Amino acid sequence: MKIIKESNISNIIIVSTIFIISSLMLFNGYFFITKQYEILDAHIEDTKKTFVENKRNLLKREVDAIIEFIQFKKSTFPISSRSEEKKLKEEVYAWIRHIRYGGQEHNYIFVYQVENIKGGEQFAKMLINPNRPDLEGQYISDSYTDENGKAFRKIFLQDIHEKGFSFVEYLYKKPESGEIRPKVSYFKLYKAWNLIIAAGVYTDDIDEEIALAKATFKQKMNLEITSAIIIFLLFALIANAFAVMLGKQIERFLNSYHAQVQQKTWELENLNKTLESRVSEEIKKSREHEQLLIQKAKFIALGEMISNIAHQWRQPLSQLSALLITLKLKYTMRTLDQQSMDTKCSEAETIVEYMSHTIDDFRNFFMPNKDQKAFSIKQSVEEVLRIIGKSITNQHITIEVNIEEDAFILGYKSEYEQVLLNLLSNAKDAIISSGNKKGKIIITLENHAKSTQLVVKDNGGGITIRPIEKIFEPYVSTKEQNEGTGIGLYMAKLIIEKSMKGRLEARNEKDGAVFIVEVEKGFKEALGGTPL
Question: How does it sit in the membrane (predicted)?
Answer without folding.
Answer: Multi-pass membrane protein
